[in-house]
Amino acid sequence: MIDRAHTETTLWRTAVSAFSYYPTKHVDEPGYTVGEDIEWCLEPLSEVDQAVLARLSDLVATAIVDPTAHRTELTKELERLADR
Question: How many CB atoms lie under 10 A from the CB of residue 37?
């Protein structure tokens, strides 16, 4: 089971990243990539299986870029992992 505090931190970090993301951010901040936000978001879950992290990485990425369409899926997956 994953510590609920870690999943909540991941969700909070994803929300912060989504709030500050915009499509041309890499132009305004040279060197910026969504990947650095994804790594930061998933840092609390570093001990999770690599296959699970890969799935979460995809969910976090889509939630950052389009939170309205993808936040529910990420939230449900994090809740599922915390309830194991």
Answer: 22
Identify the pLDDT of residue 84. Answer: 65
For 18, 51, 60, 75, the CA distances from 70, given in Å and listed in that order, are 11, 20, 9, 9
What's the whole-model pTM score? 0.92
Residue 3's φ and ψ, nearest 5 degrees, are: -60, 125
In the predicted model, residues of the chain with pLDDT beneath 50 are none
Between CA 32 and CA 26 the distance in angstroms is 5
Query: Domain map of the chain by residue range?
Result: 4-25+32-83
- So what's the pLDDT on residue 16? 98
Give the 3-state secondary structure of residue 6. Answer: helix
